[in-house]
């Protein structure tokens, strides 16, 4: 009998949760534009607003500060704007300062020009250097103001960044702060007020919601980015276009369900540490605080692509670094920023799991790892 495949690539996209599927089907079976005032329109609006509350609750935010977008990339690009609304007016930001290991959608700089962007060094574990960040802010002319963008958790290594400390430092210089929390949501507790950030971004498909829907959560009343998509007055004029009601409903249901995953942190930590202890595996970023369900493993002398194919043939899905870089042969910018030698950096595979993963999946992966290593690294003792 053919054994079921094992999926260990949640950081690329989690399986759709049954709660999200039900919410989406109900929305798809109903008619009504959420901007319409008749009963059908009000029902659609109700679905959107329920989801808004559910998404806000996942990060301790306020529902009236949630802006839905087409995904995490659009959310990030919208926030990364030199122009921000404050009340009836606006302010201009002069520099975008970011960590060197940010997601490509942030590294591209959003609506900032290339010569307005500064990248801040990380240490060998992938944690942003706060001293270097302070130097970058200190170097700004007194009449200039910055937007700082630092992800809460890295998509390739799971490294958790000291975002609250970044926000405190930013306050000394009058800088605004954006945290890309796309990989952290549902995996570690998030309180946007405790983080002290002005903007936080999310993506539904990382937590078991549908692809193609994301959100910006505003941290306070200070600022909101000028819309990237303009036209109608949807999302309180923050993002034009008829809302994708089914996807939004699925996002909300997934957000509500993923809150329960936080209770599995100890179990996930144990699984992650078992993966990191596999023979021949070299854990990347192991000296830093990390997500409980992510492990980046290097195997000296092997290519990540070779490992991904080998495990795929064994019925297990893993990733070579970030899914956003799949199909590319160059070394990940995250590994370069962490100063891994190219030969080691090119061997890194990412294992990430979540709501549907079982202990049997982890045990079976260990068995397959032993077989794959014995085949690709002759002479190695087979893993138990």
**Spatial sequence of strands, sheet with the most strands:** 2-10-9-8-7-5-6
Overall CATH class of the largest domain:
Alpha Beta
Number of domains: 2
Could you state the CATH homologous superfamily of the largest domain?
Type I PLP-dependent aspartate aminotransferase-like (Major domain)
CATH topology-level name of the largest domain: Aspartate Aminotransferase, domain 2
Let me know the average pLDDT: 93
Order of helices and strands: EHHEHEEEHEHEHEHEEEHHHEEHEHHEH
CATH architecture of the largest domain, by name, is 3-Layer(aba) Sandwich
Condensed summary:
The protein has 384 residues and is α/β, with parallel strands linked by helices. The protein has helices at 18-28, 39-58, 72-79, 104-107, 130-138, 163-172, 192-195, 234-237, 245-258, 265-276, 304-313, 333-337, 342-345, 359-376; strands at 6-7, 66-69, 83-86, 89-92, 95-99, 117-120, 146-149, 176-180, 199-203, 214-218, 224-225, 282-283, 294-298, 316-317, 349-352.
Task: Give structural notes.
The protein has 384 residues and is α/β, with parallel strands linked by helices. The chain has two domains: 6-15 and 263-376, Aspartate Aminotransferase, domain 1, CATH 3.90.1150.10; 18-259, Type I PLP-dependent aspartate aminotransferase-like (Major domain) (Aspartate Aminotransferase, domain 2, 3-Layer(aba) Sandwich), CATH 3.40.640. It contains 14 helices and 15 strands. The protein has helices at 18-28, 39-58, 72-79, 104-107, 130-138, 163-172, 192-195, 234-237, 245-258, 265-276, 304-313, 333-337, 342-345, 359-376, and strands at residues 6-7, 66-69, 83-86, 89-92, 95-99, 117-120, 146-149, 176-180, 199-203, 214-218, 224-225, 282-283, 294-298, 316-317, 349-352. The strands form four sheets. Strands 2-10-9-8-7-5-6 form a seven-stranded mixed sheet, with helices on both faces. Strand 7 (146-149), helix 6 and strand 8 (176-180) form a beta-alpha-beta unit. Helix 1 runs antiparallel to helix 9 (245-258), helix 2 (39-58) runs parallel beside helix 9 (245-258) and helix 5 (130-138) runs parallel beside helix 6. It is globular. The model has no long low-confidence stretch (mean pLDDT 93). It catalyses: (sulfur carrier)-H + L-cysteine = (sulfur carrier)-SH + L-alanine.
């Amino acid at each position: 009998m053919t054994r079921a495949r094992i999926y260990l690539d949640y950081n690329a996209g989690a399986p759709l949760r049954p709660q999200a599927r039900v919410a989406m089907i109900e929305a798809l079976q109903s008619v009504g534009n959420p901007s319409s005032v008749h009963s059908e329109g009000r029902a659609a609006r109700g679905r959107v607003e329920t989801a808004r509350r559910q998404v806000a609750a996942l990060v301790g935010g306020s529902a009236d500060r949630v802006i839905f977008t087409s995904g995490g990339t659009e959310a990030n690009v919208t926030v990364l704007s030199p122009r921000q609304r404050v009340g009836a007016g606006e302010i201009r930001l002069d520099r975008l300062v970011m960590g060197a290991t940010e997601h490509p959608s942030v590294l591209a700089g959003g609506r900032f020009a290339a010569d307005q962007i500064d990248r801040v060094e990380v240490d060998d574990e992938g944690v942003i250097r706060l001293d270097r960040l302070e130097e970058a802010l200190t170097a700004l002319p007194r009449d200039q103001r910055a937007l700082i963008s630092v992800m809460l958790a890295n998509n390739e290594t799971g490294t958790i960044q000291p975002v609250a400390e970044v926000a405190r430092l930013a306050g000394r210089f009058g800088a605004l702060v954006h945290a890309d929390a796309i990989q952290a949501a549902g995996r570690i507790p998030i309180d946007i007020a405790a983080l002290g950030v002005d903007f936080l971004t999310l993506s539904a498909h990382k937590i078991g919601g549908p692809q193609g829907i994301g959100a910006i959560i505003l941290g306070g009343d200070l600022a909101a980015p000028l819309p990237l998509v303009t036209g109608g007055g949807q999302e309180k004029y923050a993002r034009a276009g008829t809302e994708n009601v089914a996807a939004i409903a699925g996002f909300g249901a997934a957000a509500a369900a993923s809150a329960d995953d936080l209770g599995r942190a100890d179990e996930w930590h144990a699984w992650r540490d078992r993966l990191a202890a596999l023979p021949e595996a070299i854990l990347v970023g192991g000296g830093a605080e990390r997500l409980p369900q992510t492990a980046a493993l290097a195997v000296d002398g092997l290519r990540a692509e070779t490992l991904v194919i080998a495990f795929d043939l064994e019925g297990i899905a893993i990733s070579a670094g970030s899914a956003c870089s799949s199909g590319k042969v160059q070394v990940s910018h995250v590994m370069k920023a962490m100063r891994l030698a190219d030969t080691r950096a090119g061997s890194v595979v990412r294992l990430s799991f979540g709501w549907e993963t079982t202990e049997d999946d982890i045990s079976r992966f260990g068995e397959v790892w032993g077989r794959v290593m014995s085949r690709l690294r002759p002479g190695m003792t087979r893993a138990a």
